[in-house]
Amino acid sequence: MSLGAAAWGDQSVELAWTGSSDTNVAGYFLNYGTRTGSYPSQINVGTNTTAKVPGLKEGVTYHFVVTAYDSYGLQSDPSNEAIFITPGLLLLSPAAKSGNPVNLQFPVAPAHWYEVQATKDLLSWATIWQTTPATSNAWVQFADPQTSAFQRRFYRLVMH
Q: Looking at residue 36, what DSSP letter applies?
């Protein structure tokens, strides 16, 4: 079995996998957790080869595997692990001293691109940086070189 993930940006993830060719398979369990090799949460998805997992926390890394089971409840070895960092979190690290840039970090999801926008008054927003479409689920970092030019500066992240 192979397992893949797609991000939708709503604190959930939809997973899909290739079903087993074994005719004894009665269904699948989707297992997940926040540490590699540890999957305390389990969803019985029956014979479906897709599942949406809601309720994921922004910025948290989740690890997923699928196991097939037969009519006796015996489970297969787990699939390869899929890793997903939930988007929607923007971490700011203030400048260490005056004149240094503010560092921004955020997780990106495959096939999406992101705009970092800034404002001094919360009314007029300007795009100050953007990513290219992400090819994998990862953390991205940006240092705002204009930090010292503003007495106050607010940021937001827009996912496309």
A: T
Q: What is the pTM of this model?
A: 0.72
User: Domain residue spans in the chain?
Assistant: 3-85, 91-159
Phi, psi of 154 (to 5 degrees): -115, 150
Q: Strand order of the sheet with strand 114-119?
A: 126-130, 114-119, 154-159
pLDDT tens for each residue of 128-159: 999 999 998 889 999 998 888 888 889 999 88
Residues in the chain predicted with pLDDT less than 50, given as ranges, are: 1-9
Residue 51 CA: distances (Å) to CA of 15, 75, 80: 5, 18, 16
Token pair in block for residue 126 = 């300007």
Kind plus residue range of the DSSP H or E element containing 106: strand 102-108
Classify domain 3-85 at the CATH superfamily level. Immunoglobulins (2.60.40.10)
* pLDDT on residue 10: 54
* Residue in the block written with tokens 């037969």: 70
State the Cα angle at 50 between 45 and 53, rounded to 5°: 75
Separation of alpha carbons 131 and 92, rounded Å: 17
Spatial strand order of the sheet with 91-93 comes to: 91-93, 102-108, 138-144
Handedness of CA 139, 145, 146, 149 (dihedral sign): positive
